[in-house]
Design a protein that fits this description.
Blueprint (H helix, E strand, L loop, with lengths): L12 E2 H5 L2 E9 L6 H14 L9 H13 L4 E9 L2 E2 L10 E8 L8 E6 L12 H13 L8 E5 L2 E4 L4 E5 L4 E3 L9 H8 L4 E2 L12 E6 L3 E4 L2 E2 L2 E2 L5 H11 L7
Parallel strand pairs: 6-7, 6-14, 10-11
Antiparallel strand pairs: 1-4, 2-3, 3-5, 7-8, 9-10, 9-12, 12-13, 14-15
């Protein structure tokens, strides 16, 4: 990648670029199916509403079909990112055009690397995350710089010894009786997480770093990999073959658009 910046002279900028006024959803399209599309659409609408933006519900089918068609041209298993941003504005805070929609797509590539997490304390105040705001991920990048990371090191984000989750994923912890997942500020309302909560397979709870000593198994949850089994946290080995993991996998694989 060239170190030389691309310099452009423009009259207007997209408000997503100007002010991070944008939300996005990332999901897999597998053989023309998307897992929990309704969850994604509702979360996107929630995020846009909080920014003072909106998408007419009548657009949902067209947007969804365009995502499917775009993915089909790439591969039978693709990762798609749908971004909605405020429209163009010449100067200041006045929007001069309708919201803009962007679709990115690439073939999905599974990684088989073992997952060993280490706890890192988040250096900024935590904010509510009812949706995937681009601004939130700008803070994530700044946190990685604060931690002096050169790449996406496996991280368990914490704040004052309370567990938040992975950099781009929710976490589920099995304590021998039930699966727990963190709640509160800084915790993303993930689609896979919400699906498992609705299935009564995950319980919301404040999870502390100290309580990790009683955890038998753990997984990361997101709409890209669905489930990633964690091998260790802070060098404490976990049971990667625990039967409780299969319970989550079985619930997911029973749905369309899932491939583990």
């Amino acid at each position: 990648m060239s170190d030389e910046p691309d310099i452009q002279v423009v009259q207007e900028l997209n408000r997503g670029l100007s002010y991070a006024e944008a939300c996005f959803e990332t999901f897999r399209v597998i053989d023309g199916a998307v897992f929990a599309w309704d969850y994604h659409w509702q979360r996107l609408q929630t995020g846009l509403f909080s920014l003072g933006l909106s998408l007419n519900p009548s657009l949902q089918h067209n947007i969804f079909q365009t995502c499917l068609d775009t993915a089909k041209k790439q591969a039978d298993d693709c990762l798609v990112r749908l971004t909605v941003a405020g429209g163009e504005a010449a100067w200041g805070l006045n929007q001069t055009s309708a919201s803009q929609i962007f679709i990115q797509c690439m073939p999905y590539q599974k990684t088989n690397a073992e997952l060993h997490l280490s706890c890192y304390d988040y250096p900024f105040p935590l904010m509510d995350k009812p949706a995937k705001f681009t601004a939130d991920y700008a803070y994530t990048l700044r946190a990685m710089q604060h931690w002096q990371m050169e790449n996406q090191t496996p991280v368990l984000v914490c704040k004052s010894d309370v567990i938040v989750g992975g950099l781009t994923a929710n976490i589920a912890l099995f304590d021998g009786n039930r699966w727990l997942t963190p709640q509160g500020k800084g915790v993303l309302c993930g689609t896979v997480r919400q699906f498992l909560i609705d299935k009564d397979l995950l319980s919301l709870q404040t999870c502390t770093v100290a309580a990790l000593k009683d955890i038998q198994a753990a997984v990361l949850l997101n709409a890209g990999s669905f489930i990633q089994v964690i091998h260790s946290i802070n060098h404490m080995a976990l049971d990667t073959q625990h039967p409780a993991i299969n319970t989550l996998k079985e619930a997911l694989t029973a749905e369309q658009g899932v491939r583990l």
